[in-house]
C-alpha cells in the first residue's frame, strides 16, 4: 500500500475544513475561474486562457510529451511571478489550499513549490470537479433536509424587501434573486451586472445553505423555476413549492411607487425599457407594445407601470401561485400599509408571529 500524501486534502473533508485555510487558490485559467469557483477562492492561474489553449492544441496535434515540456516551462514562469507578486509577504505559518480542474498537474506544481519553500500548502483531492460533486450532492440533500416558509405576493409588493427585514429581525432567509443577481420576470436583470453561470448560481446557493440551520424553517420568496437565465435545482424547487405560504399584500398605488423606486434604471434609460417590453410582443401584439412605448416617450411612467401590473403581472401571478404552490391560501396574508421602513418592519413582525409556534 502506498503511503498517503500528507499534502492532499480529501474531498470528503473539504466542507468541514475549508475555513481552516488562510487562502483558497484556484490555479485554473481566468475563463475557468469566471465560470465557477469555490467561494472565497482567489485566481492565481499557472496557465492563462491563451496558454492553456496552446498547450491543449500541442497535446492533441503533436504529443503529450511536447505539451508537457512547454507546459512545465510556462507553469514554472507563472509560479515564479505569483511568488514575487503575491506570496512573498506571507509568514511561514501561511496555510493555503490549492486546486485546479481535477486536482492534478497544475495545482500539484504550485503545491510542491510552496511546500518546498516551507509553507504548509494543501492540494484539494479531485480539484474543481470534486468540489462540483459536493455541490450537487449537498443541494440534493438540502431538498430533503430544509423546510421553507414562502413569502408570496404580486409584483411590486416588496417581497425581497420583506426578506431583508425578516433577516434583520433574526429570521433565517434565503434570497434566491440575490444569489441569481436577477429580480425575476422579463424586466428583472440588474443593470451593468451579469448573472452567474448555472454552475456559479448553484455554488452560490450551496454556500448560502451551508450557513443556514436546517432545524429551522427558512423564509424564501415565491419564485418561478427560472430566475432570469438560471434555474433552481428541481428537487429543491419541489420542496420550496410545498412550503407553507403567507402573502404580502399592498395597494396598487404603493406597488407602483415601490417599483419606480426599485427600477430607476428604466426611467433613466427609456430605450432599454422599450427593448425589454418588445420581448412581450408575441403575447400582447404590436399595438399594445407601441402604446406602452408611447407612455415611456411621454414620461407617463406611473400610468405605464400600473398598466403592466394590471394587464401582465397580476393575471400571471394569480394563475401561477395556486398552480405551483399547493399550500397557498388566500386568507393567509399580511398587509403592507405603505412603502416606508416602518411599514416593512411591522409587516415582518406580523409574519414572524404567524409563523412562530406559540
Tally of structural domains: 2
Radius of gyration: 25 Å
- Which outline best applies? elongated
Q: What kind of assembly state do the chains in view correspond to?
A: single chain
The CATH class of the largest domain turns out to be: Alpha Beta
Overview of the molecule:
The chain has 358 residues and is α/β, with parallel strands linked by helices. It folds into two domains: 8-133, Oxidized Rhodanese, domain 1, CATH 3.40.250.10; 146-355, Rossmann fold (3-Layer(aba) Sandwich), CATH 3.40.50. Helices cover 54% and strands 11% of the residues. It has helices spanning 14-17, 30-35, 49-61, 64-87, 105-117, 127-145, 159-168, 176-180, 198-210, 234-241, 252-262, 264-268, 270-277, 281-297, 301-324, 341-355, and strands at 8-9, 23-26, 42-43, 96-99, 122-124, 148-152, 173-174, 218-221, 226-227, 230-231, 244-249, 333-335. The protein has a five-stranded parallel sheet with strand order 1-5-4-2-3. A five-stranded parallel sheet has the order 7-8-6-11-12, sandwiched between helices. A hairpin with a 2-residue loop joins strand 9 and strand 10. The longest helix has 24 residues, at 64-87. The radius of gyration is 25 Å and the shape is elongated.
Amino acid at each position: 500500500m502506498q503511503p498517503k500524501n500528507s499534502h492532499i486534502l480529501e474531498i470528503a473533508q473539504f466542507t468541514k475544513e475549508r475555513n481552516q485555510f488562510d487562502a483558497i487558490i484556484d490555479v485554473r485559467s481566468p475563463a475557468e475561474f469566471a465560470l465557477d469557483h469555490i467561494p472565497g477562492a482567489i485566481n492565481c492561474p499557472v496557465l492563462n486562457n491563451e496558454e492553456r489553449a496552446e498547450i491543449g492544441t500541442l497535446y492533441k496535434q503533436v504529443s503529450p510529451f511536447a505539451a508537457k515540456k512547454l507546459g512545465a516551462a510556462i507553469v514554472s514562469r507563472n509560479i515564479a511571478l505569483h511568488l514575487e507578486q503575491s506570496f512573498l509577504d506571507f509568514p511561514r505559518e501561511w496555510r493555503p489550499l490549492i486546486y485546479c480542474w481535477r486536482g492534478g498537474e497544475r495545482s500539484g506544481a504550485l503545491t510542491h513549490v510552496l511546500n518546498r519553500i516551507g509553507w504548509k500548502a494543501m492540494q484539494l483531492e479531485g480539484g474543481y470537479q470534486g468540489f462540483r460533486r459536493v455541490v450537487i450532492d449537498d443541494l440534493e440533500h438540502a431538498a430533503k433536509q430544509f423546510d421553507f416558509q414562502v413569502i408570496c405576493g404580486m409584483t411590486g409588493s416588496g417581497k425581497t424587501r420583506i426578506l431583508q427585514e425578516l433577516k434583520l429581525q433574526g429570521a433565517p432567509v434565503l434570497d434566491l434573486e440575490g444569489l441569481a443577481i436577477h429580480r425575476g420576470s422579463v424586466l428583472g436583470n440588474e443593470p451593468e451586472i451579469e448573472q452567474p453561470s448555472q454552475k456559479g448560481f448553484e455554488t452560490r446557493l450551496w454556500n448560502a445553505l451551508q450557513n443556514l440551520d436546517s432545524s429551522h424553517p427558512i423564509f424564501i420568496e415565491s419564485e418561478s423555476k427560472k430566475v432570469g437565465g438560471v434555474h433552481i435545482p428541481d428537487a429543491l424547487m419541489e420542496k420550496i413549492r410545498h412550503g407553507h405560504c403567507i402573502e404580502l399584500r399592498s395597494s396598487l398605488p404603493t406597488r407602483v411607487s415601490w417599483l419606480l423606486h426599485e427600477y430607476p434604471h428604466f426611467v433613466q434609460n427609456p430605450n432599454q425599457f422599450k427593448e425589454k417590453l418588445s420581448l412581450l410582443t408575441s403575447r400582447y401584439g404590436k399595438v399594445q407594445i407601441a402604446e406602452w412605448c408611447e407612455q415611456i416617450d411621454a414620461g407617463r411612467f406611473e400610468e405605464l407601470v400600473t398598466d403592466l401590473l394590471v394587464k401582465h403581472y397580476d393575471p400571471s401571478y394569480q394563475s401561477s401561485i395556486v398552480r405551483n404552490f399547493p399550500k397557498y391560501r388566500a386568507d393567509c396574508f399580511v398587509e403592507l400599509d405603505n412603502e416606508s421602513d416602518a411599514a416593512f418592519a411591522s409587516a415582518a413582525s406580523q409574519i414572524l408571529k404567524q409563523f412562530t409556534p406559540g
